[in-house]
Amino acid sequence: MGLVVQKYGGSSVADAEGIKRVAKRIVEAKKNGHQVVVVVSAMGDTTDELIDLAEQVSPMPAGREFDMLLTAGERISMALLAMAIKNLGHEAQSFTGSQAGVITDSVHNKARIIDVTPGRIRDSVDEGNIAIVAGFQGVSQDKKDITTLGRGGSDTTAVALAAALDAEVCEIYTDVDGVFTADPRVVKKARKIDWIAFEDMLELAASGSKVLLHRCVEYARRYNIPIHVRSSFSGLQGTWVSSEPIEQGDKKVEQAIISGVAHDTSEAKVTVVGVPDKPGEAATIFRAISDAEINIDMIVQNVSAASTGLTDISFTLPKTEGRKAIDALERAKTAIGFDSLRYDDQIGKISLVGAGMKTNPGVTASFFEALSDAGVNIELISTSEIRISVVTRADDVPDAVRAVHSAFGLDSDSDEAVVYGGTGR
User: Binding of substrate: at which residues (predicted)?
Assistant: First the structure.
């Protein structure tokens, strides 16, 4: 048996009983002959509570100290889990991200992993221990400061360790039984997917599916690390995410035409009104956004009015970056020469993802017909070879997701999707 990396989310270790249940599952994997490395998130809503506490003390906490505060949650989880495992008669050692060799850049609150040097982890498991690693954190390469990887960063920690340790698989344990064709909190008849390709999972993650972080899937694809998404609350098989289909029994699981429907209500829309329709204007707009270190998603430019020679450019971005984007554009107003700015944070994005879309006529028509039948108005449209995304009113998102899900025959015959824990906060 080879080495397995397991990751447990906050809902799986939300309380003492959850931690003891997870400890039993980890020990079972050890008894089955695996070397086991575990990455753990903070308990329940601990990270959110620490953020709330920081905001009460300081409206704009310094990045370095904010990271130092937030990493406390995972340190609590890892120590308690190691204690629970030892209570079951097995040796366990806990490690912070820096002790585990997770080396990052110096961008606080959303650092990126540069390298993983897991010497201490390898030594620990070779000595027969179960290694418990605090997820979501690392140490900066230059200043040796504690850093965090951004929300959902424990998934990335797990895959990065799996790659560095040449693990057989990275098991991501969460509060649902796998990856579903839609968010089971919104679509009760969502169906579990047995296998999904890295590319489709990347699109779902980028489009709002919260089961796996986009960076985690990208890392796994780069190093060809199979991911098994499953629930820590049940013993069911979950969803395999890999480059090649898995085998069940004597046959391979075939990829579906449509993988699923994702949605995202965490974005806002900025419209730059009255932009001169001439070369260089869009470049100036998006250079200002880039210099402010803001990531954007969808972009649409209207056809310019013949009488004025002016056009409007709209784009979407995270709500948390909205104020920064408006300030950056206002500073560049003279250089761009636009009339005004509009900001709208009451939008939602719905995306249909599937590798078979480009070879199956009628997918686009069916998608828009489903939205029309549900009375959903479309504000922006974006497409790729395996995805169609639209922006609508935020209030319309649940109805839109359910309508599209049903229109493409993704509904389960029964209410299959179960959410075992977590607040969804």
Answer: 47, 74
